[in-house]
């Protein structure tokens, strides 16, 4: 059972989720700086760009001993173009990595640090 939590709403999802593996290759220049991964939206929209970055983040957390299985994740953005699609990709990947509870901002929106 996966729990998606939104402001004033808790939605429990049940059923099976098919997890698939897809072989990818490293993407040149894909490394975050002090302000995160700064790329144009069209770069994030390229096949596997966001997926590779998200999975590498989950892999790094696991390597540092962070337990994702049964854990909680907050997924949100600042509402720019493609925010909703990116949030859906991240949610699906979180579930595939064993995250049980996912907090999602209303329409995928939460404020970001200034």
Walkthrough of the structure:
- The chain is α/β, with parallel strands linked by helices.
- It contains 3 helices and 4 strands.
- The protein has helices at 41-44, 49-63, 83-96, and strands at residues 2-6, 9-13, 72-77, 101-109.
- Strands 2-1-4-3 form a 4-stranded mixed beta sheet, with helices on one face.
- The chain is globular, with a radius of gyration of 14 Å.
- 7% of the residues are buried.
Taken as a percent bin, the fraction of beta residues is 15-25%
Tell me the total number of β-strands.
Answer: 4
Largest sheet: 4 strands, mixed
Shape: globular
Order of helices and strands: EEHHEHE
Report the structural category: alpha/beta
Give the mean pLDDT.
Answer: 80
Helix tally?
A: 3
**N-C termini distance:** 35 Å
Helix content: 25-40%
Strand order, sheet with most strands = 2-1-4-3
Rg on CA atoms, Å: 14 Å
Low-confidence stretches: none
